[in-house]
Input
Amino acid sequence: MELKISTSAHSDHALVAVRGEIDLYTAPRLHSELVAALDNAGGGRLLVEMSQVEFCDSTGINVLLSGLKRARERSGDLEIVAPSGTVSKILEVTGLDAVFRIHPTLDTVRVATAAPAE
Output
């Protein structure tokens, strides 16, 4: 299966929707897309929607971590939205569910950003 990526820019973030398989062969494309999205994101906030990711190997996880590091260097963040069961399992097993901010749905992101800071 191939990797499909679509990116949309918003006033305070960029949304990257990923679909398919992230592996050794497709990860470089995801990396390029994340870098470009971060370059265009207002404030360096990047949301990566992963509900239709069917497979993600360690190369894909490293791309996400690299994106997170790059975003944080710009005082931003990389947040994972609606991870598929496969992605959720990988994040849990590796302990990265404590590293990434994870939102169950895109609607919860909007609610979270609308809530006042405590």
